[in-house]
């Protein structure tokens, strides 16, 4: 009997050992599988994950050379992907530009700041993100967060405090215009196309540096109506622009650039920078272009107007004017923000820096691209000959 019990004991001992070995191996296999599997990726919020420039010295940073000069001017969107960190540029013109912007806002408030009721939440969202998150994270040498009777942003350049959270959309736009050298236009899908796709309308803006257009008369209009005077827009860009605005994803951003020659140094210009060879009257083009040189179709009358304007062109007053434009979407309101920083370059400087021939070819190329009418639209028939001659002299 004792031998039977002993055998049973040995059997149970062996079985227990085998069980432990099997359990251990299974546990080891599971651990190995877990170790070989990649850890789940925790996506960062792109609106909070702004790359800082900890050693940025705005006083020593010259303006970028932004103009996309090409031998043929083609009307295209020509956007390039960027990160949200890159939507705003700063340089050594900041302090001077802030004085100019504030003066323009004070003297032309109705023309520089507008907000339709439907866009108030989007304006406040943009303000709180730019003031409370973007500026202090991106440019810590220029802006910092402080708590003085509530959370504020300190503008270290002007030694001013701005409340992080606004309830007044007009004041919010004023803050942006007075502390950032960038103009902001906000658009919402306020109507739909016949196929049901959204059409974006300009619903709010702070814009100190319009280049020959009046935004106060464009407020509430869809992209197609805003761009009526632009030659080739309807045929070349309208559908692709509407699709792009509708499909722009949250957290994504793009940039593009444009350029023109102006015959003065005015940063705030609601008219005078464009010319129309359309045969349309002022009323057909739009009341906001009443200040523009709307050309009649008759050749003699048109040439007389061009000759008269040519006589007033002075090289020392001319500027190469360029905008670095960015587009991104706000996460809560889903508004699309179109922002741009304006650059001006003396023709003498462009020539000294070796851009003379490149700019001359680009000017001649205005009439060689997919929309030759741009030579008139940009007033190249007025200033082109004199400017090209100077650049090649």
Describe what you observe in this structure.
- Helix content is 38%, strand content 19%.
- With 393 residues, it is of the alpha+beta class.
- The strands form three sheets. It has a seven-stranded antiparallel beta sheet. A three-stranded antiparallel beta sheet has the order 3-4-5, with helices on one face. The chain has a two-stranded parallel ribbon with strand order 9-10.
- Strand 9, helix 9 (282-285) and strand 10 (293-294) form a beta-alpha-beta unit.
Principal-axes geometry comes out as globular
Q: Helical element count?
A: 14
Helix percentage: 25-40%
Q: What is the spatial order of strands in the main beta sheet?
A: 1-8-11-12-6-7-2
Largest sheet: 7 strands, antiparallel
Structural class: alpha+beta
Mean pLDDT: 89
Low-confidence stretches: 278-297
Distance between the termini: 121 Å
Total strand segments: 12
Order of helices and strands: HEHHEHEEEHEEHHHEEHEHEEHHHH
Radius of gyration, CA atoms, in whole angstroms: 30 Å
Oligomeric grouping of the chains: single chain
Pfam families: HODM_asu-like
InterPro entries: HODM_asu-like
């Amino acid at each position: 009997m004792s031998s039977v019990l002993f055998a049973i004991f040995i059997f149970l001992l062996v079985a227990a050992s085998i069980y432990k070995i099997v359990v251990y191996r299974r546990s080891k296999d599971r651990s190995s599988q877990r170790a070989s599997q990649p850890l789940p990726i925790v996506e960062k919020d792109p609106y909070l994950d702004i790359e800082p420039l900890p050693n940025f010295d705005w006083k020593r940073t010259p303006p970028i050379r932004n103009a996309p000069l090409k031998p043929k001017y083609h009307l295209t969107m020509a956007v390039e992907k960027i990160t949200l960190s890159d939507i705003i540029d700063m340089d050594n013109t900041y302090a001077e530009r802030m004085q100019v912007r504030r003066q323009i806002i004070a003297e032309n408030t109705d023309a520089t700041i507008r907000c339709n009721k439907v866009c108030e939440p989007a304006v406040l969202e943009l303000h709180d993100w730019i003031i409370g998150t973007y500026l202090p994270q991106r440019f810590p040498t220029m802006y910092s967060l402080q708590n003085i009777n509530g959370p504020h942003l300190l503008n270290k350049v002007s030694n001013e405090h701005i409340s992080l959270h606004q309830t007044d959309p007009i004041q919010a736009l004023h803050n942006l215009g007075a502390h950032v050298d960038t103009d902001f236009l906000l658009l919402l899908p306020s109507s739909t196309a016949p196929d049901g796709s959204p059409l974006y309308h300009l619903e709010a803006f702070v814009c100190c540096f319009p280049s020959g257009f009046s935004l106060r008369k464009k407020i509430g209009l869809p992209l197609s109506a805003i761009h009526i005077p632009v030659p080739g827009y309807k045929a070349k860009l309208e559908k692709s622009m509407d699709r792009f605005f509708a499909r722009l994803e949250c957290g994504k951003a793009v940039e593009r650039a444009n350029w023109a020659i102006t015959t003065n140094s005015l940063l705030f210009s609601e008219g005078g920078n464009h010319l129309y060879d359309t045969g349309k009257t002022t009323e057909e083009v739009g009341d906001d272009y009443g200040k523009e040189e709307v050309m009649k179709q008759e050749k003699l009358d048109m040439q007389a107007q061009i000759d008269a304007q040519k006589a007033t062109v002075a090289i020392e007053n001319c500027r190469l004017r360029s905008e670095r434009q960015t587009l991104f979407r706000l996460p809560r309101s889903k508004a699309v923000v179109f922002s741009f920083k304006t650059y001006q370059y003396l023709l003498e400087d462009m020539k000294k820096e070796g851009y003379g021939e490149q700019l001359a070819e680009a000017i001649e190329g205005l009439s060689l691209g997919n929309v030759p009418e741009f030579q008139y639209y940009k007033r190249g028939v007025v200033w082109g000959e004199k400017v090209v001659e100077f650049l090649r002299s």
